[in-house]
Automatic annotation (TrEMBL):
GO terms for cellular component: cytoplasm. Residues 3-366 form the RecF/RecN/SMC N-terminal domain. It comes from the Bacteria. GO terms for biological process: DNA replication; DNA synthesis involved in DNA repair; double-strand break repair; SOS response. This is DNA replication and repair protein RecF. Belongs to the RecF family. Transmembrane segments: none annotated.
Length: 371
């Protein structure tokens, strides 16, 4: 799939823009603060109906009430087109965001799911490797949602049960008699928690091989990437069949501590993913460039999964990815995604030197205008 044409009106610092893209490499070149990320954000916005960084209201150019983003995407296998038009109106009529797909109004942005195939990488994705477990859990859950939408319902349900259980624990600090109702929540937590854990472990097996291959490719075979799902309840996959029992026991064991804290100290909401490079923990021992390559391999493994599931090459959006990567890694990225349309932002151009003119388009951006 590729983006053929993009139109913006009052989107961030773009008053008006119409641009035709190359079906392979597109470089958005410019100094800091000129609108490079804003342009990528508008493309991402067309695929999800929301931004990767801010609420929709902030996407409207300051001082304006109404904005729109319009994109025509072409499916490579059939040549059929998907036309997405999103209008944001935060004036007096305050209609909010409305989405048209092929001129038909969508009831909610979830109807866009799976229509526009985009994989993005932004500097914030480095947090998958360098920050706390919540970032890794969110990464795996988001990736999973793309191929298994029912995972979303399980997560929502689990969150609800967890909040209610925690409320009950707090009530028990004052009124121990409510303890009788706790087992109902525990049982629901265990059943839903099992669904989440099984989905995640299944997905980890899938992504492990793909991310390893991409990482090997990007590092010229120098680094072996390995991911481990780290459950606070079970030690290895042999324990999977006794997961429910172990979870119930742990909830019982931790009860007095949980009442004191008013929160639940066991369950998949506390799990983590260990990311190793050559058998060493990437978070602790990886250099900045190694962490970035790791995050890239993880995030971009989605392109292979999309290809496997749909037969289509996803559009790859890369925001400022080349800084901190050596020339070799930069070239490997270009090679690895040679079948995908790439839209990449950068303040420099040298990594494209080896790509023939006919294979790339370079746009200079200055104060919300392309040249
Ligand atoms: N809603 C908005 N209305 C008008 N201008 C905006 C809005 N949101 C952001 N901007 C402007 O957009 C510019 C930032 O654009 P962007 O984040 O795309 O920069 P960039 O070119 O990617 O820079 P860098 O290389 O530093 O990451 C800033 O000048 C900011 O003031």
């Amino acid at each position: 799939m590729h983006l053929e044409k993009l139109k913006l009106y009052n989107f961030r610092n773009y008053p008006e823009l119409e641009v035709f893209f190359h079906d392979k490499m597109n470089l958005i070149l410019g100094e800091n603060g000129q609108g490079k990320t804003n342009l990528l954000e508008s493309i991402y916005f067309l695929s999800r109906g929301r931004s990767f960084r801010n609420p929709n209201r902030e996407l409207v150019k300051t001082g304006e009430e109404k904005a729109f983003v319009d994109g025509i995407f072409v499916r490579n296998d059939t040549d059929s087109k998907e036309h997405v038009q999103i209008t944001m109106n935060y004036g007096l009529s305050a209609e909010g965001t409305s989405i048209l797909l092929n001129r038909k109004k969508l009831k909610s942005r979830s109807e866009l799911a799976g229509k526009i195939l985009i994989v993005d990488f932004t500097p914030e994705d480095l947090s998958i490797v360098k920050d706390g477990p919540d970032k890794r859990r969110r990464f795996i859950d988001n990736e999973l949602l793309n191929i298994k939408p029912v995972h979303g319902a399980a997560l929502k349900e689990y969150g609800k049960i967890l909040r209610q259980r925690n409320e009950l624990l707090k009530t028990m600090q004052r009124d121990p008699s409510v303890k009788d109702t706790l087992f109902v929540w525990d049982e629901r937590l265990v059943k839903t928690g099992k669904k989440i854990l099984f989905n995640r472990i299944g997905f980890m097996q899938k992504i492990n091989g793909i991310a390893k291959e991409i990482h090997e490719n990007l590092t010229d075979g120098k680094e072996a990437l390995k991911l481990y799902y780290y459950s606070n309840l079970i030690k290895n996959n042999d324990d999977l069949s006794s997961f429910e029992e172990i979870f119930r026991q742990k909830l019982d064991q931790n009860l007095s501590q949980d009442i004191r804290r008013g929160s639940t100290s066991a369950g998949p909401h506390l799990d983590d993913i260990k990311i190793n490079i050559n058998d060493m923990d990437a978070k602790t021992y990886g250099s900045q460039g190694q962490k970035r390559t790791c995050a890239l391999s993880l995030k971009l493994s989605q392109t292979s999964i999309i290809k496997e599931e749909t037969g289509e090459d996803a559009i790859v959006l890369l925001d400022d990815v080349m800084s901190e990567l050596d020339g070799n890694r930069q070239q490997r990225i270009m090679e690895h995604f040679k079948d995908n349309q790439i839209v990449i932002t950068s303040t420099e151009i040298s990594f494209l030197d080896q790509l023939p003119k006919s294979m790339k388009k370079i746009y200079n951006v200055k104060s919300g205008k392309l040249y």
